[in-house]
Amino acid sequence: MFESDKPHIDNSRCDRCAVRDRTVCAVAHLAAENELARVSRTRRVPAGETILAENAEASIVGNVLAGVLRMTKTLPDGREQIVGLINPGEFFGRPYSETVEFAYEAATDVELCVMDRRSFEAVVARNPELEHELLLTTLDDLAFARERMLLLGCQNTLERVATYLLVMLEHREQLFADVALQEHKRVAVSAITRRDLASYLSTTIETISRHIHHLSRIGVIRIIDSSRFEVLAYEMLLALSGLAREDLRLFRKAPLFGRGPRLVALNGIIQSRQTPVLTSVKTRSSRIGHF
Amino acid sequence: MFESDKPHIDNSRCDRCAVRDRTVCAVAHLAAENELARVSRTRRVPAGETILAENAEASIVGNVLAGVLRMTKTLPDGREQIVGLINPGEFFGRPYSETVEFAYEAATDVELCVMDRRSFEAVVARNPELEHELLLTTLDDLAFARERMLLLGCQNTLERVATYLLVMLEHREQLFADVALQEHKRVAVSAITRRDLASYLSTTIETISRHIHHLSRIGVIRIIDSSRFEVLAYEMLLALSGLAREDLRLFRKAPLFGRGPRLVALNGIIQSRQTPVLTSVKTRSSRIGHF
DNA sequence: GCCGCGATTTGATGCGCATCAACTGGAGTG
DNA sequence: CACTCCAGTTGATGCGCATCAAATCGCGGC
Q1: Which of A101, A117, A127, A256 is most worth mutating to test chain B (most B CB atoms within 10 A of its CB)?
Q2: CB A96 to CB B134 under 8 A?
């Protein structure tokens, strides 16, 4: 356990991790980082596969490295609702519970960083900064989930489609936060299938198709292909979503962006290979004292 | 700060707290308990009053001692959704954020235990067992929120009403967990107005009225008065809700119930005037050690 | 280049439930 | 005791969207 051989190899895997700065790992102290590396392994899962079945044992947790996971819940008669999508850099699984309340499935081909749940919990118990980070992301997820209740409860299907496009755009804007190329920021990209989108927005593929083409016809968007849409009239789209501008704030899901002074100047782009030395140092020095 | 005068008085207030064993405070070590007592105060708020407005500064957090809070979100055109109800013993507010994403309002006359948010955060930072408990309840809330997405996205209005009755029943059964009187367990009690219920279930008071009377006509429930319903055919109600039996597990919201061995036999009833002496003792001796 | 199959689009129809409106009943008031 | 007033009930109507059905597109395989 305490040999410095295997861990070191694992840690180098983390050094090459594409989403390291966006995951819960980003706040881990050196010791915690090593512990996490020791209990984690990467795993590829093709689209459609189930990672954790509904009500199954909550055996593992982890981070999404690439691709998208869907969390679903199915009624006895077969009706299904996607209750959440999990993007690269985001945490998945159900800590501190024997079973998972929802199914976790690969919505696209995915690459995961997987950990045994109990091992993860043990690492968290020894590293308060991890527990704190987990709490922060869970609180954000909760606010996001409640925002989606508003979507499902109050917004009509056109407003839901408009909102989805705005959210995709928001994600895009964050990815290219410091890139000057404006055209990237105007393109909403949907990584999931139309079927999944329909389930996520609680409507049908036919209705989505109609609304997308309606938005195209009135000049609000341009359909590049079935999964990419250029937004030509942002303000119009916002108006059609029925949302207030400040509500979009909640949709900035990338965990470690825009949340307080922890990562003051995050100049690394997710795909960038630069080692975020300064960022790490800042993170460690600005932590709240636990004991 | 370290004088033992004022704190002692505050602490006695906590000793008389009706919901103490169900709140986050229940896991607090003695030192943390004193710290929480020092920064908290009770406050009564009449039904309809706003405690925290939507997007307002997240100045306070706290626990509900009596009554029900509603969390709402309103669209620019006035459409409103209740995204959560907060019952006695449950935590409210938004830690670790400058603003609240939702409005917190008194759905009934309420009694609150209120704390300055930053003071609360400071106490949590010094007491890891509190942070852990906060994480556990937040994870439960998140699962509950996602379950409600299923309700809003997949279930029709009759199924939503049936589900609500089942949830009320579930709450009741927990309150009277060890009481032999079976009749209490068969009565679903709704503390909120029909208008709030309509918003919570994302439907209208007319539709709720129709379904309630339909359920009464087919003999599934008996209408005692407009807020109390005796469930005559539990299995039928479950079938009409469209849910699987195990889904109800999620609705056991009372934070410290049914989660491990912390509260083995809670025989105190919230509304009862008996002092739950034994309960308090049991709680302290059976609490789990963190760290 | 042709075929076949799934994904998407477009059209026609029906139903669930919101909406509007009228009525009822009980609690509080002068 | 009539009064108002609000919560709840009941009925009539219309609309949004699911559903069913058919056409079209796109793409990999041979």
Answers
A1: A101
A2: no
Domain assignment present for residue A214? The answer is yes
Chain position carrying tokens 């907060």: B86
| Cβ–Cβ contact A169 with B under 8 A | no
Q: Looking at chain B, which residue has its C-alpha nearest residue A291?
A: B126
- Name the DSSP letter for residue A222: E
Question: Each residue of A122-150: pLDDT tens digit?
Answer: 999 999 999 999 999 999 999 999 999 99
Predicted confidence at residue A180, as pLDDT, reads 56
| Parallel, antiparallel or unpaired: strands B221-225 and B228-231 | antiparallel
Q: How far is CA B205 from CA B195, B200, B208, in A?
A: 6, 11, 5
Among B145, B147, B151, B143, smallest CA distance to B203 is for: B151
Q: How far is the CA of A150 from the C1' of C21 (A)?
A: 29
Phi, psi of B89 (to 5 degrees): 90, -10
- Judged by average pLDDT, the poorest of A101-110, A261-270, B243-252 is A261-270
| B76 contact residues in A (CB cutoff 8 A) | 242-244
Can you give the distance from the CA of residue B132 to the C1' of nucleotide C11 in angstroms? 56
In the predicted structure, residue B263 carries a pLDDT above the cut 50: no
- Is there a single domain that holds both residue A210 and residue A85? no
Q: How confident is the model at residue A42 (pLDDT cuts 50, 70, 90)?
A: very high
List the single residue in A with minimal CA-CA distance to B94: A139
* Residue-number span of the structural domain to which B45 is assigned: 6-139
Is the domain of A76 the same as that of A42? Answer: yes
Q: Calculate mean pLDDT across residues A9-28.
A: 77
- In angstroms, the CA B165 to CA B230 distance is 10
The domain that holds B201 is classified in CATH as 1.10.10.10
Q: Is the pLDDT of residue B220 over 50?
A: yes
Q: How many CA atoms lie less than 13 Å away from A143 in the CB half-sphere? A: 26
Q: Are residues A82 and A26 in the same domain?
A: yes
Contacting residues 214-253/A vs strand C (CB within 7 A): 223, 226-227
* Beta carbons of A73 and B150 less than 8 Å apart: yes
Q: What is the pLDDT of residues B159-201, one digit of tens each?
A: 999 999 999 998 887 766 665 556 666 899 999 999 999 999 9
- Summarize the confidence of residues A28-42 as an average pLDDT: 87
Residue–nucleotide distance: A227 CA to C5 C1' (Å): 20
